[in-house]
Amino acid sequence: MSAPDPQQPDAASEQSQSTQESPAEARLAEAEARAEQHRADFLRAIAELENFRKRSAREVEAARQYGVERLASELLPVADTLALALESAGSADVATLVEGQHATLRLLQKAFERAGITEVDPAGQAFDPALHEAMAMQPSAGHPPHTVLQVVQKGWLLNGRLLRPARVIVSSAPDSAAPGG
Fold first, then answer.
1. pTM above 0.85?
2. What was the pLDDT predicted at 17?
3. How far apart are CA 43 and CA 23, in angstroms?
């Protein structure tokens, strides 16, 4: 037998080292594979989020541009009726023109109704600063104070949200208008 070569590790010690490193290398390889999978999932999630953001921005822009499409299509008959009234204004009698204006107003009111636009006409009601804008106060013995006496301009709501307050004249107590009273 020859003496073992100090440069050459013997087979038993090499096998012993490889069995010790093998589980550690396996765990490292498994951890690296999981890390790569997590990185791929992360990049996919970022891409999906970016696509969602872009799609949402496009949808918001489309809603801004075309959100009134339904209302516009409802108003087209009103515009047609007004154009017809202007064409026939020279030859029609007053009663026909007035009836045409009433018909046009009904078309407009129907279009508003379908779009969720409702009129605020508070005549005779209590003054509500959330819905009404007081243009003036007028003393009135026949009405309780803070009652709407006259509607100067009607208000409008869009699905319950105030578009424009009704401009009104509101009653006050008769003695509050007397100078020095």
1. no
2. 54
3. 30
17 token code pair: 């080292």
Residue 84's identity, in one-letter code, is L
Distance CA 55, CA 85 (A): 45
Tokens 């064409």, residue located: 87
> Phi and psi for 170 in degrees, rounded to 5?
-110, 145
C-alpha dihedral (18, 20, 24, 26), degrees to nearest 10 = 50
Of the candidate ranges 24-28, 35-39, 62-66, the one whose mean pLDDT is the lowest: 62-66
Residue partners of 136: CB distance under 8 A and separation at least 6: 169, 170
The mean pLDDT of 153-175, rounded to a whole number, is: 93
CB-CB contact of 112 with 118 (8 Å): yes
DSSP 147: B
* Residue 172 bridge partners (DSSP): 139
Does residue 73 have a pLDDT over 60?
yes
Work out the end-to-end distance of the chain between its first and last CA atoms, rounded to an integer number of angstroms: 135
CA distances from 11 to 17, 20, 22, 31, 85 (A): 10, 14, 16, 30, 108
CATH numbers and ranges of domains, the chain:
116-181 (2.30.22.10)
